Amino acid sequence: MSKRNPLYDFKWCPGCGDFGVKVAIEQALAQRTAERGDSIEKTVIVAGIGCSGNLVHLQEGPQPFGIHGIHGRTLPVAYGIKSGRPDLNVLVVSGDGDFLSIGAEHIGPQARRNLDVTVVVMDNGIYGLTKGQASPTTNVDVVTSTTRYGKLDEKMNPYLFFLGAGVGYLNSQMSSRVKDLAAAIKAAMDYPGFSIVHVQSPCTTYNDTYALLKGDEKQGIEPLAFPIPDSHDAGDLIAAVNLVRTNRIPIGQIYRREGESVPGHERLARAKVNAGVGQASVEELLTGMLITA
Ligand SMILES: Cc1ncc(C[n+]2csc(CCOP(=O)(O)OP(=O)(O)O)c2C)c(N)n1
Ligand code: SF4
Ligand SMILES: [Mg+2]
User: Fold this and answer.
1) Which of 20, 153, 198, 225 could potentially form a cystine with 249 if both were Cys, beta carbons 3.0 to 4.6 Å apart?
2) Is the CB of 55 under 6 A from ligand 2?
3) What is the pTM of this model?
4) For ligand 3, a single-atom ion, which residues have Cβ within 5 Å?
5) How much is the average pLDDT of 136-149?
6) Domains in the chain, start-ordered, CATH in brackets?
């Protein structure tokens, strides 16, 4: 429960990875606003429905605006905000169910549009809020309330999915490495276009993957996560694809496409105005308010 919002009685379970993500976002926002001389009210956090989405109510310190909207629809809400107010800094927080299951259809269109927002995906490989159903990133064979004999279908590879959809900036992090995570979120917000920070953020109640991710010598478990080597060229899409195409979890900056400072939809609107399409202004085209005779 946040001191600023005492009526909203929600608590994460002890050890939930989302605590680390919350602190990292607070640090990244503090650094970004200080650097730009912006006020915190120029930031809007758009949250989906899930334990992860509750982050919007739990932010401590200077408060950004927040929208706790509809399950799976963070990107349409972010697109609406950014179209009406391109000057705002829009940060989406989403769960693996919210973003990669019901919300997956929105990723391709916004990546192609190069919508200038940052998405922080809190991937715990489970539907946490609704008490432990399998999600697209639940490992195969895992027993959940919807997979009583173990999950039968293959785990989705979100990194390959994002790269295939044309996402321009992709970083992979762990919720327990708060300093690195804050730096990754800040770098993603500074990127001029659609950026994703995909965070392994374990659910200690329904799918505790800490040992799998970090390894456990006593149990003979090799760590799934590994640091991306310095030799990796994040500007090379093929190198990025090769890095993520196994089922291990690379940690660090996977991909960064350079050279795009203007989101695609804004570029199109400006081009139309320059070409004299109707009598529209850029703002009319961006907000879809153009009325053609
Ligand atoms: C349209 C709609 N469908 C389903 C739900 C029920 N629901 C709420 S949260 C959730 C899944 C949450 O999982 P995830 O996005 O991974 O978030 P987590 O709780 O794990 O952080 C579901 C299915 C809903 N609220 N709205
Ligand atoms: S159910 Fe899982 S994801 Fe939700 S608060 Fe508890 S540990 Fe975190
Ligand atoms: Mg989840």
Assistant:
1) 225
2) no
3) 0.91
4) 95-97, 124, 128
5) 97
6) 18-261 (3.40.50.970), 262-293 (no CATH)
